[in-house]
Amino acid sequence: LVAGAMPAAAQTYPARPITMIIPFAAGGPTDVVARIVAEAMSKNLGQAIVIENVAGAGGTTGSTRLTQAAPDGYSIMIGHTGTHAASVALYPNLRYNPVSDFAPIGLVNTNAILITAKKALPANNLTEFVAWLKANERTANNAHAGIGSVSHTTCLLLHAIIGVKPQSVPYRGTGPAMNDLVAGQVDYLCDQVVNVAPQVRAGTIKAFAVAQPQRNAALPDVPTTAEAGLPAYQVVVWNAMLAPKGTPDAIVTRLNQALVAALNDDGVKARLAELGADLPTGNLATPAGLRAFLEAEIAKWTPVIKEAGVTASN
Ligand code: MLT
Predict the structure, then answer these.
(1) Is a pLDDT exceeding 50 seen at residue 1?
(2) How far apart are CA 125 and CA 128, in angstroms?
(3) 31 CA to middle of ligand 1, Å?
(4) Any residues with CB less than 8 A from the CB of 131 and at least 6 apart, and which?
(5) Residue 223 C-alpha to ligand 1 middle, in angstroms?
(6) Residue 3: what pLDDT?
(7) pLDDT tens column, 229-243
(8) Cα of 124 from ligand 1 centre, angstroms
(9) Ligand 1 centroid – CA 138 distance (Å)
(10) pLDDT digits over 259-295, tens only?
(11) DSSP β-ladder status, 141-144 and 167-170
(12) Are 170 and 147 spatial neighbours (Cβ–Cβ below 8 Å)?
């Protein structure tokens, strides 16, 4: 090889369809964002991106699967705050290192978290919900997408602030958890705006507050946690695109270009805005920016999880 030359495989990349692992069930927030972005990326790359939902263990099963795939650019994934930050403290036997076992491609988006409940729940605002939760702590059902998932860890934070330990009901993603919330089979869910916004607009669930400093443009009528009386509850989560470690730099660069092009696509922007998702800022949509961000997020979440006193096994 002469200096600067690309390996032959990188020059012809991609020559066949790419598999994108989604570590949660179809129809949930990770899956919905991934499909919007993958469709635009595949046009840019000139190859199909095939979504494979590998759910289980709060997203750690699918993440482990990616680390076992060939590092040739034909296997990538969408990980998030749960699989690539909170999991480190939650799973003592985690089978991967979220930074060193992956080649980061770029941050995809950030999502606000909302406190939502079934329609029949007697509370009509956050203050009433907190009172209801304290009064019904032993029987209240908290749906989530598995230990270490975003819906799990963000409700753990809420429980720690309120001082309750309700019943935990794990699903393989918040797609199925949301279906059961709409059907009234579980009581409440801490979920990402992209999964919550369509349901709130359809009037099928209650949303008590959005856990960020400003209201979300997709749900302007839902108060912030500060407005609703719980200013301590602030949490925003993210999705990130990753390849297995050892994926050639030239291929990671090509995937990053396709990701950035997708995020700049007007159709993608409009669909993500309608769902209330925010686009990455600064250098977060670059491989180096994402690597540094992952390290910072692991450092941020580890003490939070340890303080909440929860561990999991996979
Ligand atoms: C979660 O961590 O709660 C997930 O993002 C759920 C999902 O994508 O289905």
Answers:
(1) no
(2) 5
(3) 8
(4) 123
(5) 23
(6) 45
(7) 999 999 999 999 999
(8) 25
(9) 25
(10) 999 999 999 999 999 999 999 998 999 999 999 999 9
(11) parallel
(12) yes
Instruction: Find out whether 123 and 209 touch, Cβ atoms under 8 Å.
Output: no
Quickly tell me which residue has 């060193």 as its tokens: 100
Across residues 132-146, what is the average pLDDT? 96
How many other C-beta atoms lie within 10 A of the C-beta of residue 270? Answer: 11
- Report the nearest-CA residue for atom 9 of ligand 1: 173
**Mean pLDDT rounded to a whole number for the chain:** 95
Average pLDDT over every residue of 56-74: 97
Q: Any residues with Cβ below 6 Å from ligand 1, and which? A: 24-25, 28-30, 80, 82, 145, 149-151, 173-175
What is the whole-number distance in angstroms between the Cα of residue 61 and the centre of ligand 1? Answer: 13
- Which residue among 20, 21, 24, 51 has the greatest number of ligand 1 atoms within 8 angstroms of its CB, and so is best to mutate? 24
Pocket test for ligand 1, best of 21, 142, 149, 194 (most atoms within 8 A of CB): 149
Question: Which letter, b or e, does each residue of 83-99 get, where b requires 16 or more Cβ atoms within 10 Å of its Cβ?
Answer: bbbbbbbbbeebebebb
Residue 51 phi/psi, 5-degree rounding, is -80, 130
Q: Contact, 78 vs 66, CB < 8 A?
A: no
